[in-house]
Amino acid sequence: MNEKKIIELKNVAKSYDGEIILDHINLDVHEKEFMTLLGPSGCGKTTTLRIIAGFVTPDTGDVVFDGVRINDIPAYKRHVNTVFQKYALFPHLNVYENIAFALRLNKVSEEEIFERVTEMLAMVNLRGFEKRDVNLLSGGQQQRVAIARALINKPKVLLLDEPLGALDLKLRKDMQNELKNIQRKTGITFIYVTHDQEEALSMSDTVVVMADGKIQQIGTPTDIYNEPENAFVADFIGESNIIDGIMLDDYKAKFSGHEFVCLDKGFEKNERVDVVVRPEDVDVVPPEKGMLTGVVTSVTFKGVHYEIIVNINNFKWMIQSTDYVEPNQKIGIYIEPDAIHIMKRSEYSGQFGDYSSFSDELDKLSDVTEEEE
Amino acid sequence: MTKKSFMQKAAAAPHVVWAVLFIIAPLIFVVYYAFTDKDGAFTFSNITELMQASYLEIFLRSLCFAFLATVICLIIAYPIAYFMAKAKPKTQKILIMLVMLPQWLNFLIRTYSWMALLEDTGIINSILGVFGIDPIHMINTSGAVILGMVYNYLPYMIIPLHSVISKIDPKLLEAAADLGCSPLKVITKVVLPLSVSGIISGVTMVFVPSISTFYISQKLGGGNFDLIGDTIERQFQTAYNYNLGAAMSFVLMLIIIVSMAIMNRYSGEDDGGVIV
């Protein structure tokens, strides 16, 4: 990755009516980076994006663009462009004029406008749509026009505010690939806001997990998934069993009444910690061979695997296994040392990672409300 | 077309009766009187009589005053409507009420109030006198008449403009700024084109009553500026020449229809606009 910083947020804070939206965040965005701001609704990710775009002025802190402080530079003078959540295409202009909008403001010659709009339309696969009325396009087509319109001025940074939120699943997957390709081809820095963790993991160079106006973790998708910093990150990205544990010594953790060998070190002796075990890393074995034993409470077929909920010492674990087990069956589980990840305790300890109240339906309901942001 | 049930017809009946009694029938009377003489015989003489220079001057003046009043209303109303639309929803309600407030007073009283304000020894000149400024002659000028029109019809320009501007998605304004529009350009490139339907409604609602207005000119123009409305009134109230009055009304209607047609043409295929 390019090491040159294009955007720096330094100690940026924002609150509305006494409610803290952003709590002194620091963030560096590098050139050519695909960065995703990921978090639930109300975590401050959209506000962060709007501060960079210039639509929101931070209460304190500096916004630095290419080495220059831009707090006081209005949105229209900034070298960033935005793809808005619901596209915000100009209804009085056709596809061609929407894309040409920024060029016309700069008094670019008619031939050059034609050349560049045509090039943009080709990039977003909308050749032949020049004269179409934007109000009659499908969601996916409107999305492409919005991307072309934002990219035509060759901004140094493109901001994308949940751009795929309104599209159906299949189209969303296609657009994810296309966006990633466009980003590679143009070399423009993308800052992408989403609440969809899968989208974040599959597209980004860097993921910034946010919650409660704070940055919880910054890292590559694999770092975020494999080495979550706290219970919030572990729970928000993928599925996690998060258990209270004690770090007996380096490489030695105790939880659920059993001592485990792990790969983590550097904690105090007998420090209380949060232990993360991903459901796919747990092996189901006969009870007599298990490190821990428990009773299966439910089994759900998910296609690739079964999702098994097991009650172990009154903590409900989720296990993903390709082998079927019966409900009410007693099973043992086996965990490899590298499947155990130890985290320092945080304000989120104990809030997440128990599957006793787990339900798919609830998960989906909360997804819908998140899109309202 | 499917056959309407008896109930549907019955429900429409009051409206049909109303339209026939109060819209169609009066129109037929106007046309009838316009093309007949005192004995009821068909004639074009009422229309040809209007071709005299004195009447043409009145028509031209009415057109001119109404046009000026409409343009001034638009220029004043647009910024007001824009800032109203940007205010908080609660403030907007209060502002709309304030705009409509003068309409709660009788039209005659409002016009008399302007006389009191504008007279040579009126309120404005008295206040100017306090500061040692010589009185300005305002009453009985064409400016006073146009002022009267602007004052009376301004709310009908503000309300449709406000209603259209307040419905423009604020994200579009952000998108325009994002693409490099200065605050002024945001208005000319996005807000104005998206409020064309409101402009058409407002212009219609000001122009039509302005061109047919009466009384304002008599009171604020001192009888120096005869307008069509006043002339028509005189034909019915003092000259008792119903035929000539009807002919004037007929021609006025034609002028309004043509004006509206021209304007709707310039607005393109836009959905808005009041059909006259």
Summarize the SSE layout with pairings:
The complex is a heterodimer of chains A (373) and B (276).
Chain A: E1 5-16, E2 19-30, E3 34-38, H1 45-53, E4 60-65, E5 68-69, E6 80-83, H2 95-105, H3 110-123, H4 139-151, E7 157-161, H5 169-186, E8 189-194, H6 197-203, E9 206-211, E10 214-219, H7 221-226, H8 231-236, E11 241-249, E12 252-255, E13 258-261, E14 271-277, E15 282-285, E16 292-301, E17 306-312, E18 315-321, E19 330-335, E20 340-344, H9 360-370
Parallel strand pairs in A: 3-8, 3-9, 6-7, 7-8
Antiparallel strand pairs in A: 1-2, 1-4, 4-5, 9-10, 11-12, 11-14, 12-13, 14-20, 15-19, 16-17, 16-19, 17-18
Helix pairs in contact in A: 2-3, 2-4, 3-4
Chain B: H1 6-34, H2 45-49, H3 53-86, H4 89-100, H5 107-118, H6 123-130, H7 142-165, H8 170-178, H9 183-194, H10 196-211, H11 216-220, H12 228-237, H13 242-266
Question: How is this structure best described in words?
Answer:
The complex is a heterodimer of chains A (373) and B (276). Chain A is of the alpha+beta class. Chain A has two domains: 5-226, 3-Layer(aba) Sandwich (Rossmann fold); 231-370, Nucleic acid-binding proteins (OB fold (Dihydrolipoamide Acetyltransferase, E2P)), CATH 2.40.50.140. Chain A is built from nine helices and 20 strands. Chain A has helices spanning 45-53, 95-105, 110-123, 139-151, 169-186, 197-203, 221-226, 231-236, 360-370, and strands spanning 5-16, 19-30, 34-38, 60-65, 68-69, 80-83, 157-161, 189-194, 206-211, 214-219, 241-249, 252-255, 258-261, 271-277, 282-285, 292-301, 306-312, 315-321, 330-335, 340-344. A six-stranded mixed β-sheet of chain A has the order 6-7-8-3-9-10, with helices on both faces. In chain A, strands 13-12-11-14-20 form a five-stranded antiparallel β-sheet. Chain A is elongated and about 80 Å long. Chain A starts with a strand and ends with a helix. Mean pLDDT of chain A is 90; it is low at 368-373. By secondary structure, chain B is mainly α. Chain B has one domain (24-266): MetI-like (MetI-like fold, Orthogonal Bundle). Chain B is built from 13 helices and no strands. In chain B, helix 8 packs across helix 9. Chain B is globular, with a radius of gyration of 23 Å. The interface between A and B is medium-sized, with 25 and 18 residues.
